[in-house]
Design goal:
4 strands, 3 helices, about 100 residues, alpha+beta
């Protein structure tokens, strides 16, 4: 499993519109083969900052499968105009799984 991490700073005062757009965009990513799940979290210290976490089976499921799809074009149209600056997106793999 690969974890995609994006810190999303949106334009101040657009939170309600952003969340509406994110709700519309969410089913788009879920259609992609290799998608596992995604979560959007709101920062407690910065009003207009969010954290997007997406789980993929492989890196290519995101970088090729999603990013070259028509769903990604629609995702961009719905969401990317809210970001300032444009987010840096990184991918992480688990090295030391810990379970209790």
């Amino acid at each position: 499993m690969i974890l995609e991490v994006a810190i999303l700073d949106i334009l101040p005062g657009t939170d309600a519109k952003y969340l509406d757009a994110f709700e519309k965009a969410s089913p788009l990513i879920a259609e992609i083969p290799g998608y596992i799940s995604h979560t959007l979290k709101k920062c407690m210290e910065r009003d207009s900052r969010y954290l997007l976490l997406v789980q993929w089976e492989t890196l290519e499921d995101d970088t090729i499968g999603f990013r070259t799809s028509p769903q990604y074009d629609e995702w961009k149209n719905l969401l990317h105009h809210f970001y300032d600056p444009h987010p840096i997106v990184e991918h992480y793999e688990t090295l030391f799984p810990i379970s209790t």
